[in-house]
Design a protein that fits this description.
heterodimer, A: 7-stranded mixed sheet, 4 helices, 24% strand, B: alpha+beta, 5-stranded antiparallel sheet, 5 strands, elongated
């Protein structure tokens, strides 16, 4: 997108990611080993100190005042974890929140970083299960990731569950045939075999 | 709903007390927003339009579609402004609910920027994607410009008709703003 505002303050640690080590290793009840980076949250939206500047509206008397404006909702959280299955390995980029012109750069950065450090033979999985809004900027990022993956012969798989805010725009844009969509992360990983 | 022509007019939407007092079903209160020319504007618009329509018991599927269309329109509007390099002060959003004699309702949202008119892009895939998305989400999308070339571009979104707020078929007393766990049909 050509839209670029003043620098957005970024909370927490972000890219490049810390190296994986033994302390980030965990096994879940199914015996699946996961490496989770604890500090990869990226939050956007406090540029106005928790308030959105809406001329004439964002005054203290309005119900947008006192930090209750939509800025608090305007968050995207992205974490990246490595998942190892008996049937395959994947780097999973998990996205929660809203993907629009403001936040799409975070998704693009996370996907690019994922490609950079993708282990040989592993899949890149983008898990959108907890995404609550997906606009055309986000759709374009997914299309670009899919194209990049094709170019590099590395599969990128997108997990959409059944959530309407994600599935609906993908279908309306006719991208359900373009993107590799899966209902669960496990399905996405297993499809490699 | 014709554009008011006065971008500085700001009518407050219904307060929560007004909603409690029972005016929500008709929701004759229009929505008037002045959005900052900033990438945060689409999220502000989504938030406000969601609250406005939820207060009118808009069916949740239609509500989500309208919000998607509005978000795309506002995204385009701020991009206009940036491309112009003029950083005009605001993007205006006006929403109005019309009720047909049979009780069916439609919402019309007008998004107006103050950038110079420019034809739909042919080389920007992202923006090419936004307009068809808008058209898929609402009944009609009208993209126009006033006679005055400097007066900006307007996008008029007119939703599909939905039942009256009093219609028993609307068994959701309040359109749920939750985005989670809602399956597509």
């Amino acid at each position: 997108m050509a839209i670029c505002g003043p620098p957005v303050r970024v909370l927490g640690r972000h890219w490049p990611l810390p190296a994986l080590d033994a302390s980030s290793r965990a096994e879940d009840h199914a015996g699946v080993t996961r490496w989770i980076r604890p500090s990869t949250e990226v939050a956007v939206g406090d540029r106005y100190g928790g308030r959105v500047h809406e001329p004439g509206v964002g005054d203290p008397d309005s119900d947008l005042g006192a930090g209750r404006g939509p800025a608090a909702e305007q968050l995207v959280r992205i974490t990246t974890g490595r998942v190892v299955h008996a049937e395959g390995e994947a780097l999973v980029v998990t996205v929660a929140g809203e993907i629009d012109v403001l936040t799409v750069a975070r998704l693009r950065e996370a996907v690019a970083a994922g490609f950079d450090e993708l282990p040989d033979g592993a899949a890149l999985v983008i898990d959108l299960t907890d995404v609550t809004f997906l606009g055309s900027a986000g759709l374009q990022a997914l299309v670009d990731a899919t194209r990049a993956a094709r170019r590099w012969r590395e599969p990128v798989r997108i997990v959409v569950d059944h959530t309407r805010p994600v599935v609906r725009p993908i279908e309306l844009a006719g991208l359900d045939d373009v993107l590799a969509l899966f209902h669960t992360v496990d399905q996405a990983i297993r499809s490699s075999s | 709903m014709p554009p008011t022509g006065n971008d500085n007019t700001l009518r407050p939407e219904m307060s929560s007390s007004e909603r409690r007092s029972g005016h929500r079903a008709t929701s004759t209160q229009p929505l008037c927003l002045q959005l900052p020319v900033d990438p945060i504007a689409p999220s502000v618009a989504r938030h406000r339009v969601r609250r406005w329509l939820a207060a009118s018991c808009w069916p949740s599927g239609q509500l989500e579609d309208i919000i998607l269309a509005v978000s795309e329109a506002v995204s385009n509007a701020i991009e206009h402004a940036y491309l112009d390099g003029q950083f005009p002060e605001v993007v205006a959003l006006n929403g109005e609910i019309e009720v047909a004699p049979g009780g069916q309702r439609r919402v019309t949202v007008i998004v107006r920027d103050h950038g110079r008119w420019r034809p739909p892009p042919i080389d920007d895939e992202n923006r090419r994607r936004g307009i068809p998305l808008m058209r898929a989400c609402v009944d009609t999308v009208t993209i126009g410009r006033p006679d005055d070339d400097r007066a900006g571009t307007s996008v008029v979104l007119r939703s599909r008709a939905v039942p009256s707020a009093d219609d028993p078929a609307l068994d959701h007393p309040r359109a749920v703003p939750s985005d989670r766990g809602d399956t597509t049909g």
